[in-house]
């Protein structure tokens, strides 16, 4: 749940040995004018860089590989509709955070001007940005009440397991009165999903919020898994004929990428870190094959569960890539782990940048609004930021505030998440940008909170 840094699906998994994996967002692009301006600023600040991988498509049924530049028009068009349009001939440059994905959100928070006075609430472990905004992690909002023109929130401290998920075997803290706020920002569709980590019980909700809950309940969510693979020196050099490969015709994975090839990721110990993202249908089978439905219809994740799923994905991936490797099996990795994105993306987003109600002072943003991707998340967050500014009688939100409102909550067809791990950061960073950029006093819901 982002115990160390903000970012959600734009965060990075670090191992005890210092390996790093972009287990959520693999890359992003910019197409709209406002987001392109933000990207230019991030480039100038050095927190992102263009990733120019040796990119291609591998057909598991024929064992053939083609570089992106060698694809014919029809092949390019077909391949472009796959993993996050990675091979689209008309898409722009691919960007990544450097030296890690979460650097982007950290930078955005630091650009948001501090608003208001007084210390932040001491709730859980925190990370303080240079702008004076204090981010509090490991705190879950589970109740919200609209009363006398204010939002009253209650929540609890949560304990995390070694993979960043809530550990049901560790004691959680006492329930807390988290405070009274002028506005509420909902940054994930899980708020309307009973049993999920992000579910919130609304006491006497206004009619507009009941309608939002009805719409969110009708969303169709898709799970995905990320497989994190670390090889010792010289063991993975010939894994695939490229740095990033879209896999078609396989049973298990749709994307395999060498994270070590990304700018700022070069290692001195010779280790190479790869990330594979499963196909949605394969992920659904993995979820359905496990006993127990502890969390909103999903089996309880934990170290044993993750290790078991990692081995299953690893075995299936070897089968997908067998033709590429010829008679040689894949080398056994030194590090192997899996991360489940319980709600990686929705297939039927609402189709609007954000949802809000000025009378009861709430706004909702996320990948359930416009769809998957960092850019859609930033646009959604900016729309929510402007809506809150309007309802509080404040100037329009700054670009950084809008970006902070959206980043950390994006999903994608290629493996970004709206489930338990994305909630902590999506909500806290969303509130961070809104609160700091608008100068108001508000909160975002979820497993963590951020208040000034």
UniProtKB/TrEMBL annotation:
**Entry's InterPro entries?**
FAD/NAD-bd_sf
What name has this protein been given in UniProt? Amine oxidase domain-containing protein
Q: What is the lineage of its organism?
A: Eukaryota, Viridiplantae, Chlorophyta, core chlorophytes, Chlorophyceae
Q: Where is this region: Disordered?
A: 405-452
Q: Which residue windows does the record flag with biased composition (Low complexity)? A: 429-446
User: Could you tell me which SUPFAM superfamilies the record lists for this protein?
Assistant: FAD/NAD(P)-binding domain (SSF51905)
Comp. bias regions, Basic and acidic residues: 414-424
* Domain of life per record: Eukaryota
